[in-house]
Amino acid sequence: MAEVWPAHMPRSLEYPEAGLDALVEAAARLYPERTALVDGEQSLSYAAFADLVHRVAGGLRERGIGPGDIVALHMPNSLWYPISYYAVVTCGAAAAPLNPAQPPAALAVQLRELGATAAVTHASCFPALAAAGTTGLRLMVCAPATAAAPADGTPPTTLTGLEQLAAAAPLSGPPVSPDALAHLQLTGGTTGRAKGVRVLHRNLLAHVLQQSAWRTGHLPRTDAAGRLRLEPAATGLDTFPLRPCGGVVVTVAPMFHGLALVSHAMNILTGVTVVLPGRFQAHDYLAAVERHRATYVVGAPAFYHALLRAAGESSYDLGSVRATYSGGAPLDTTALERLRQVFPHAVVGEGYGLSEATGSLVSTLLDQPEENPRGSVGLPVFDTEIQIRSADGDRVLPAGEIGEIWARGPQIADGYHGAPELTEQQFREGWLHTGDLGRLDDRGFLFLAGRSKDMLIYKGYNVYAQHLEEVLAAHPDVAQVSVVGAPREGVGEIPFAFVVLREGAVACPGDLMDFVAARVAPYQRIRELRTVPALPLSATGKVLKTELRALVAAAG
Q1: Which of 12, 102, 376, 546 has a CA between 20 and 30 Å from the CA of residue 42?
Q2: Residue extent(s) of CATH 3.30.300.30 domains in the chain
Q3: pLDDT, tens digit, for every residue of 431-463?
Q4: DSSP letter (8 states) at residue 328
């Protein structure tokens, strides 16, 4: 079959020797008057955003924060979150985005294991930080309340106000090294304790350039002074749904999660206006998309399932949206088809990646969506290689065979923080062992088959949970589904499904099991099924299969 690739685009990009401060400088130079951030009635242009970033970076340096420091970002989404992140990395320190809703005991472990020496928090989050213990923190900064992140009362006087840092002179000096640590991204923790992934400046910059080029048809270039810019790969790029300096996105995904944090870096380079409405509520979100004429929607599967429910209850004008993108976990093809109906003018895209790869490795074609095979998460992006290997990692499997996914590219991170043995297991000779299962077709499109830990063996047969989830999700009464293995004597494990029904649905477990049985081989059938009001989700919207397995174990 003929190969496919984004139109007019090369297979390889140019990656400048630069850090993330180059993104902020480029946006201020290329889009100075364009609105960068909207938080309630507050807004900032890209020029004002860059000025605040450099002033806060100067304030951090004045207080002794710089290279070698780890600054915890323990705060909700607001316009001060990206300011804080880019100020931290611009001053040479590294950021550690942390979930502000987690209990103090878990927070204390993360602060200790990541080696945080400073923190930027918020009045609503500080009690948890104080309870976790702050003896290792040389500086604690409090971000102001905003419409997206309101707070009752006043913050403790022991905290330095972020406005105080912003009153400093802008930081000037040599640019940040591309080999410096940018941030420690905690993994989802869906299969165990979260680990801190070491994302270098060069990793995130490479990812930003890859995704910006893939989605806009523009190539990264540097001028005679080494300053970054984007230029169109060719004339007539109307097939690409997104454009530099022309987009609006409403962001509700938490910025402590890589999906939002990394997406925002791409938004900076492409001059996108980012609206931050605060806590997610599906109807409010769709109303904000309509009001701000958003052009781009990005989120995890749980986010999209909530939007689909809301869109079925009320009517919204969503015709401004030109692209949607799902990441963080697989989204079933039935939900993808429904998204195409809800967003009638949008290219519905999907990708595959993980924290250890900074973000994405694979993406569906946005300029030629008709070329994307049903069920595929896309092609490896620029300068990225995907191999499907045997379980021992020694043999590369041919197209069509399911095996373990290995990846190589400039966005692959620097390993796990403080865990050399684990790093050696997962990062081998430039390749990342993802722990996920998949297959490649003869054109190089990737199809996921789930986590290797999610594969179950029934009477000696390999059964893939994600395949069964896909089949069940096609039933008209099913809103969400997750399948795990349940140990049974004599057969190994049986497929056990947990199903959330749509509102008003009447299907019983037997009906749903029969639906699957009519569409799969006998050894793949769902053997037990339980309907539940909701699936357990992590803070980043991933299904917690560990909790589902615990429910199975408790039921015997």
Answers
A1: 102
A2: 455-555
A3: 999 999 999 999 999 999 877 777 788 877 778
A4: S
